[in-house]
């Protein structure tokens, strides 16, 4: 506890001598030294303490140091000049625009709910199954996934019995679809933003949308005047067809863009 | 000089020393009284800060900065779909809270199979007897439809403009979760009137839950309160619809928007 720089008593004891002749210990009425060590030159600073720590905390500290250094390096290397922010004031411009959009949407919703009253059917009857069971429209695709029984695999070893129940097949289909959608950002990387830049992914998206619609048609198959087998084939053929068409269209558009770019380039720098 | 401690902040003397009107005196006295107890001055400073924050300029978006508005204005609705789904969600919350005053989640009252239950009767009451009730239910239903539609289209917009790419994967996953929860919201609300379609939709739900390997029966118990539909199912759907999902979905939306705020809007370039 004692500090070498403070004056000590002549007889060599550790006790510090106060100016009135007594010692610290005598003068102390508060029951002992403070629980915390007062900061002096030996006390490690915050950053030093962080540096000295171990394990995960140390790793975290080291990473943050690295990323801070990376930021600084990027900033010093970049040619970007910070200018005053060009922008519209929050009030009135942004606020008015947001209020306009909000009241427009609210107005549309209120108008539609005023002129199109919602359906209300008979009370629930567990005893009689209705001819048509349907969820709301936004679950049609999900309901369609439950009607995939024609493609439920059957095995010869099971004597032609299906491997799993049709409900389980539907559930697995749901899981597959949600899984693929979740994985999209991990599969599709890069800086491309526009559909033209990535015709394949755009085609996949269009195929997905069409599949949702055709699955909805499968869900309300009772209403469709065509044969179930044909409908079932269309459910999977139409998305593929739509995807191919999208791919072709986007590729062509891309050629057109490239043509325009090249023409502009050669107009600026004509070949010698 | 007296030994009595001087009050440097004798506000009353300060008030008296000034030539104030009655209104000013009353206002100041009230303000000082409140400020001594609630320390309003701190909050006034907060308000001042907020005032200056609100007067900050929003940075110009990519489109505005490069003057692409003439090319992009017709895409604008696609960029307000997230906003639309939140607006519809809020409208559904308000109208739903009002419907909650009249709706009774109960299957009591049916003597024979197919008789109207208390839940069905309360819906009929809302639509026939309650002032503005028909419109209220219509608003609730249509705002739900609009929310689901907006959420789907929002996802398509994000997909086709590649807005989910590198730093924004987490928000994409959060969005997928939010879509699933929105569909669950719609499903649980669809069951509540306890009409034929509600009942049989819930029946499919139970069968689906039971078909799940390992956790099927547990899931059916948890979500539908049993393997056959009844009072327990209705109450579970009700609590899910008016208590659990609102909290979960609202917090997830807050996080979703917060992440967009932190990361910035990904505009096509």
Largest sheet properties of chain A:
none
Overall mean pLDDT of chain B: 89
The end-to-end distance of chain A, rounded to whole angstroms, is 87 Å
Major beta sheet summary of chain B: none
Radius of gyration of chain B: 28 Å
Low-confidence stretches of chain A: 6-13
Order of helices and strands of chain A: HHHEHHHHH
Q: Helix and strand string of chain B, N-terminal first? A: HHHEHHHHHHHHH
| Poorly predicted sequence stretches spanning 5 or more consecutive residues of chain B | none
Structural class of chain B: mainly alpha
Shape of chain B: extended
Share of helical residues of chain B: 55-70%
Q: Name the biggest interface.
A: A-B, 67 and 78 residues
How many helices of chain B? Answer: 12
Span between termini of chain B: 78 Å
The oligomeric status of these chains comes to heterodimer
Mind explaining what this structure looks like?
- The complex is a heterodimer of chains A (272) and B (269).
- Chain A has 272 residues and is mostly helical.
- Helix content of chain A is 55%, strand content 1%.
- The longest helix of chain A is centred in the C-terminal third of the chain and has 41 residues, at 228-268.
- The termini of chain A are far apart.
- In chain B, helix 6 packs antiparallel against helix 8 (133-160), helix 7 packs across helix 8 (133-160) and helix 9 (169-191) packs antiparallel against helix 12 (231-263).
- In chain B, 29% of the residues are buried.
- Chains A and B meet through strand 1, helix 4, helix 6 and helix 7 of A and strand 1, helix 6, helix 7, helix 8 and helix 9 of B.
